[in-house]
Amino acid sequence: MRPRGRSERTIWLMLAAAGVGLLAVPFTGMSIYLMSVAFVVMFHAAAAVSWNILGGYAGYESFGHSAFIGVGAYTTALLLSHQGLSPLLTAPVGALLAAAVAVAVGYPCLRLRGPYFALVTLVVSLAVSVVVVNLPGLNVASGVFVSRPAASPVMSRFILYEAMAVILIVAVAVARAVERSRFGVALAAIREDEEVAATQGVPTTRFKLVAFVVSAALTGLAGGIFSWSRGFLDPGDMFSVNLSVLIVLFALFGGRRSWVGPLLGALVVTLAREFLFIVIGEDAAQILFGVLLVVVILFMPNGLIAAAPRLLRNGARR
Amino acid sequence: MRRRITLVAALALVVAACGLAEEATTTTTTTTTTAAGDTTTTAGETTTTAPPEQLVIGATLPLTGAFADTGVFVRDGYEAIVEVVNSEGGVLGRQIELVIEDDASDPGQAATLLEKLITVDKVDLVLGGYPGSSAAAQMAVAEQHGMVYVSMGGHMASFGQGFNYSFGAPPLMGQWWYKGFFEFLSSLPADERPTKAAMITVNNPVGASVREGTVEDLAAAGIELVMDELYDLPLASAEPLVSQAQASGADLFIANSFFPDGVLTIRAVYTLGYQPKAILEGIGTLIPSWKEELGAEGDYIFSGTAMHPDLPFAEVDLLRQLSEERYGTSAPPIYFMYGATWVGTLLQAVEGAGGADQDAIVAWLRSNEACSFGGCLTFDDKGLPEAYSYLTQVQGGVPALVGPADVAQAEPIYPIPWGE
Amino acid sequence: MTQLVQAVTTGLLVGLSYAVLGVGFSLTWGATGVINASHTMVAVIGAYLGYFALAWFGVDPIIALVVILPLFFVFGWGFFEGLVRPLKKRTRVVGLSSVVLTLGVALVLESLTKLAATANPRLLQTAYTSRSFPIGPARVGGGPAMAAVISLVVIAALVGFRQRTYLGRAMRALEQEPEGAALTGIDVRLTSGVATGIGFATAGAAGVALSMIYVFSPTSYLPWLVFTFLVVILGGVGTVLGVSLAGLFAGLAVSLASLVIPFVWANLVLFVLLILVLLVRPTGLLRR
Question: What is the pTM assigned to this prediction?
Fold first, then answer.
């Protein structure tokens, strides 16, 4: 899907410019509230883009990615509340721990495909949740206090925004690098037909595992900064199944072939939900959202990105 | 080319959404009054059509989501009292406007929306949220912005964070929950008291806080804790837990549970024929579902509370009357009472401090008794009043107020009359 | 010893409630390829209907099943015609899309239920739910016992249906050989429609059964859904006996585990067992 007439370097420069732009937005005098909304959007986008490395590129749709969010989230939260270490330092540790969990469960889980993989990842996320919440001595079950990033509210929101923006940029960069590499081509081959790929010499098991681990690490990184914004972590918060499913929806909605889909999906869906919630209230918003899901699946099964050209073309014709 | 178009479209969507979001969330701004009574508005902002001198109070509550059934009662309590106060001329001659946002039972959303109310809507005062996890998150936000936060309090540990602006009026502290029960036990002759206790606790912050207090209370009462189990929600079956309690020979059974697991536990107690002298259940037999859904199946169960509809205080008459008007029953729902008390305390402090200056309000609360519907409270430097708890027991399907003796409206039934 | 027998009894009873939730889900998945994430929300609605039948008309929920079962069957068939057929026409691999589609349906149903019945938790109280009786050295509550009866009847009916009737055998054929079944003269559309209808009907029955044991509210569908997934994967997609056995197995595993390890780890045992089973037999305990 290489755009005609543009070199790789130009694309990377454009993306870098967009990244800088993203980092610069708060300096235009963004309100605290908008920074909070943007923070959540970027978190969702980062999680979705990371998920997609395994779910979209390799075709292994995980329904348990909140496990990695939770691992990252609690790593930074506990290190902050027990040792006073800033999540800016410890988020990478969260990423590493999430990666470790992926290594531990990846090999067995990746032996399954399709719905079985989806469900085993769901169950794994439940198991991880039980383990983390009940780790001896850490009192996770009684709740964890997460102190604010800075004394001033504006500074707090600013730090959170910038940290998550950096993570989003990293996630997109990694995802794109994977897309453009031979590793990415191999993943696509696995997605299309894993048996054939194997006979062609692709080390499917190893590559799937790498995709799983990278996806998990990036998600853990995002989770590590996300918990910093919560103030108080109630045990079920960071491991919710809802979050796992939502991430899948972002990618499904936006499209899974490249990093753009999940990012767009996260953006549109998160903002739409927020907006609907404010304007028509939770119940009506959920009904609308449910209907939207049905409509999208029936009429845009490959996501907004794939359908957009067709929609735009049809729109232009009228 | 296509990709760029969709990106631009996405960007347009974001800008549009931001704009709409700002519009949808900007509420009325306060106007200032000069001494002569002229109104001036802050330059560039829209003039309100509301009467001048308004006092705007902002809060978020779970109006939807897991805690909605309780959240709406708190909102009702806030609204009812504000209505009454406004009809009597308001506070310091100023009418009160309540702005209550729905945080959908999400603590992160609660914190964000409170911050929005403070920074975007620029409310004069804030009120507490629900439940404890949301309040805990909001206490930090209120502190950061220097706003007084009168509420149920987050969990006990929140009050150890060194906040100056938070007050629990009353706080709903799990650690204090059973104080009424243990006071009652200590009034019994020694040979009638239970000797062994079996305790099960739901594995979350609320359960943990109740358990923490209970362990201390049991030790102080000389009762041996022979079983101390945690369990996760959702609970599939309570028989294994109750069976273990029964086998331990405990004559005091303590279930620090919520409603769904609490029901399973009681039913298991009856099914297995476990007959302790007393059953203590945690998270409030005063919640409506307990009476409406469980009824007499829950008879004899003790619990604790920070307020009760049958309290013989003159101020509670107003709540009984308001409840009659709103709900058709003269037994005000407990969270309606809490809401009323939280806003009542705040308004009393505003009156006492002569205005909405947050530091003046803090100073007033620290040096005065706040006498609202629940009696008079004096706050320590953490913002907590002295520990207290009323004892309730479900009798005839209704949670009666049975302790302490000076407010009790019914006699506690102890031990449980099994087999009668 | 008593504790062991009690644990086994309770485990089996809990397991039966997992089983009755799972069999309809498994049937639909096997026959149509649709992973119906709204299955447990339909069950919740069944629970509400039974509850209000008692509250408003004094009719015991079990009697109310006479109305609930056919009603849900029709809804299920309609669901198939209205949503599943269009989906199948547009997607090659129905799996993931059906999850998202049915999730959308579940969300809509949840909100509608909340608006109609409020979010307040409900508890069914009939003449038998507060009674109990002994089975050997163990004791059983009236509610769980009734739930077990409903579950057993549903499972037996399904097994009988699949073995003895033409449509039932057609469903099994569809499961095993989705492509080839049509060639053998099976009316795929009819069979799939009936399968979905039966799925919904059993969901309604399951909801009534579960309401005899548990407090429920609109959000109950989520934890119920997790356990449904669990037993269906464990037992084998498309099977009825497999899923039933898996349910019993799951209930027993948690119950027995809680005898020896702290309660908070009991669920973990189940999850670990599931992962192990999946590694050894990816298609489930009984699936061929």
Answer: 0.89
